[in-house]
C-alpha cells in the first residue's frame, strides 16, 4: 500500500494552521463535509476505473497490478465495483462490457 508523504498531505489539506485555528466550528465542519464530498467523488472514480479495467478490455488488467496501483488488496479490487459502476461505465463509453452478462438485469439494450 502506498503511503502519503507529509509534503503531499499538507498540500492536499488546503488551509494552513492559522486559517484552521481561526475557523468557527461551523466553518470547520463545512470544510470537513467538503473533504468528504471530494473523497466520495474520488472513490466513485476509482470504482469506475476498476470496472473499466476488468470488464471493458479484451485483455483485462490483472487484479494484482490494479491492487498495487490503487493501494488496495486483490480482494478489495475484486469487490470494489458492481452492477452500478459497470452500468455507468457502459453508458459513458457507449458500449457493452466484453462479457455482456455482467450488465445489470435491468439493462434492456
Low-confidence stretches: none
The biggest beta sheet reads: none
Class computed from helices, strands and strand pairing? mainly alpha
- Alpha-carbon Rg, integer: 18 Å
Describe the oligomeric state of these chains in a short phrase: single chain
Number of strands: 0
Mean pLDDT across the residues is: 87
Task: Describe, in plain words, how this protein is organized in 3D.
Helix 3 (25-55) packs across helix 6. It is built from six helices and no strands. It is mostly helical and 109 residues long. It has one domain. The termini are far apart. The longest helix is centred in the middle third of the chain and has 31 residues, at 25-55. Helices cover 64% and strands 0% of the residues. The mean pLDDT is 87. It has helices spanning 6-13, 17-22, 25-55, 63-70, 74-79, 83-93.
Summarize the structure.
By secondary structure, the chain is mainly α. Helices cover 64% and strands 0% of the residues.
Topology:
Blueprint: H1 6-13, H2 17-22, H3 25-55, H4 63-70, H5 74-79, H6 83-93
Helix pairs in contact: 3-6
Label this structure with key terms.
mainly alpha; 109 residues; elongated; single chain
